[in-house]
Write a structure and sequence with these properties.
The chain is an alpha+beta fold and 106 residues long. The chain has one domain: Alpha-Beta Plaits (2-Layer Sandwich). The chain has helices at residues 15-23, 27-35, 60-68, 71-80, 92-95, and strands at 2-9, 39-45, 50-57. The chain has a 3-stranded antiparallel sheet with strand order 1-3-2, with no helix packed on it. A hairpin with a 4-residue loop joins strand 2 and strand 3 (50-57). It is globular and about 35 Å long.
Amino acid sequence: MQRVCFLLKVRADRLDEYRARHAAVWPEMLDALSAAGWHNYSLFLREDGLLVGYLETEDFAAAQAGMAATDVNARWQAEMAPFFEALDGTRPDEAMRPLTEVFHLA
């Protein structure tokens, strides 16, 4: 199982709305994530907008491709893009750059 961690930055003026959106993620989005192989997926948000994402998957590239092929993901990403800083026209899911794991206590 691959463990994937990534960072993004949520705009300071959108933090409350970002939290609210993730308190009510669309059921079809949740189903699509599970079907595409996203497991143990968590998002952590710091007060300054730093967002840390973590997930486990058999194959991250395949999990991303699986989501990219869904209509619900395209709609979700379009709605979420304005919440983030420095995307430069890239969708949030395309801006996720996994961090290199340097330690893991099994």
